[in-house]
């Protein structure tokens, strides 16, 4: 069947979204941006059937109060639409590849000693709320040990944690990716004790980490607890925006995993693919960024890394929500 470009661009957008969702992606963020784009585009070129250079360049113009990251997301969504159109035989304008603006964000990688101090401070949380004490004792260990995003940990329900199989099910995550993560035996023992103390009488849809009102903690509330425990552990905090952040426990997990793989002589290419799936990244490139970070934090293992990589890739922007 011949494919023509007589179908409206608005209809093509709906086709793309159906395709993405049938492939297992939520695509809600993409849908919002592309619906905004087509409303904007049709004001300039009514009856549009493809992405033209003129309308794409107008759309790419940064508004006075827009952050570069938001502009990048808008352009990236239209670029994805253009590539979809080309894949089905419709000529479309594609933004040229642009080097991302340098980021001021630098992940904080905890040392083994700092992690021990932090977890000890979590175990010794002084509060009359025993549930909160148990939550604090476990949640940061899980974020680090499983490489979770804070939002993923807070979204867990009792149903999502299988203490028999030793797995946790991550759903409604970034990029719409679901994943099933195995849990280390030592962590699993703690989770079983936690379940017995806190969740024994909770239903399957109850939050795995309940707050004082039996709801879920917010990411802001978790961050406040995190800063409090950092202080108790004697780990300095640079103030808002400077970290350490809760998300840096996830970055630390990735770097420590690569450090272990390098020291054990494992194949780093295979490890990166595994890490990408485990972390729920959109692709292996996000995981490759950790090579540079691992080399920076542990210069003693650079030689081992260079045995497998002629050039350790420069670290691109590691977004703090990756």
Task: Describe what you observe in this structure.
It is a single chain. The protein has 322 residues and is mainly alpha-helical. Helices cover 53% and strands 3% of the residues. It contains 13 helices and 3 strands, in the order H-H-H-H-H-H-H-E-E-E-H-H-H-H-H-H. It has a 3-stranded antiparallel beta sheet. Strand 1 (161-162) and strand 2 (167-170) form a beta hairpin. The chain is elongated and about 65 Å long. The two termini are 40 Å apart. Mean pLDDT is 83; it is low at 308-321.
Low-confidence stretches: 308-321
Structural class: mainly alpha
- What's the main sheet like? 3 strands, antiparallel
**How many helix segments?**
13
Quick one: overall form? elongated
In which order are the strands of the major sheet placed?
1-2-3
Beta-strand share of residues: under 5%
Count all strands and give the number.
Answer: 3
What's the mean pLDDT score? 83
The Cα radius of gyration reads 23 Å
Secondary structure elements and pairings:
Layout: H1 9-22, H2 28-44, H3 53-60, H4 68-87, H5 112-123, H6 130-146, H7 150-155, E1 161-162, E2 167-170, E3 179-182, H8 185-199, H9 219-233, H10 248-263, H11 268-279, H12 284-297, H13 302-306
Antiparallel strand pairs: 1-2, 2-3
Helix pairs in contact: 1-2, 2-4, 5-6, 5-9, 6-8, 6-10, 10-11, 10-12, 11-12
Give me a quick take on this structure.
This protein is mainly alpha-helical. It contains 13 helices and 3 strands.
List keywords for this structure.
disordered C terminus; single chain; about 55% helix; about 325 residues; mainly alpha
């Amino acid at each position: 069947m011949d494919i023509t470009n007589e179908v409206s661009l608005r209809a093509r957008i709906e086709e793309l979204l159906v395709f993405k969702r049938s492939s297992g992606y939520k695509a809600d963020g993409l849908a919002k941006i592309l619906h905004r784009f087509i409303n904007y585009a049709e004001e300039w070129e009514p009856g549009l059937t493809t992405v033209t250079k003129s309308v794409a360049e107008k759309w790419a113009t940064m508004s006075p109060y827009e952050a570069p990251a938001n502009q990048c997301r808008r352009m990236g969504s239209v670029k994805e639409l253009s590539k979809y159109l080309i894949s089905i035989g419709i000529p479309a304008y594609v933004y040229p590849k642009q080097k991302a603006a340098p980021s001021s964000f630098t992940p904080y990688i905890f040392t083994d000693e700092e992690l021990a101090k932090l977890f000890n401070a979590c175990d010794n949380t002084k509060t009359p709320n025993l549930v909160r004490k148990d939550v604090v004792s476990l949640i940061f260990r899980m974020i680090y040990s499983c490489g979770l995003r804070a939002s993923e940990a807070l979204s867990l329900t009792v149903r999502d944690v299988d203490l028999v199989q030793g797995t946790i099910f991550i759903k409604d995550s970034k990029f719409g990716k679901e994943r099933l993560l195995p849990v280390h035996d030592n962590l699993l023992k703690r989770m079983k004790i936690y379940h017995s103390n806190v969740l024994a009488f909770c239903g399957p849809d109850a939050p795995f980490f309940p707050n004082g009102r039996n709801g879920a903690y917010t990411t802001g509330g978790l961050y406040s607890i995190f800063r409090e425990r950092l202080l108790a552990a004697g780990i300095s905090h640079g103030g808002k925006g400077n970290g350490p952040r809760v998300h840096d426990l996830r970055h630390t997990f990735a770097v420590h995993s690569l450090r272990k793989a390098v020291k054990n002589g494992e194949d780093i290419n295979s490890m990166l693919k595994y890490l990408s799936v485990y972390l729920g990244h959109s692709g292996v490139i996000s995981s490759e960024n950790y090579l540079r970070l691992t080399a920076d934090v542990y210069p003693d293992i650079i030689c081992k890394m260079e045995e497998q990589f002629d050039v350790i890739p420069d670290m691109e922007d590691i977004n703090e929500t990756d």
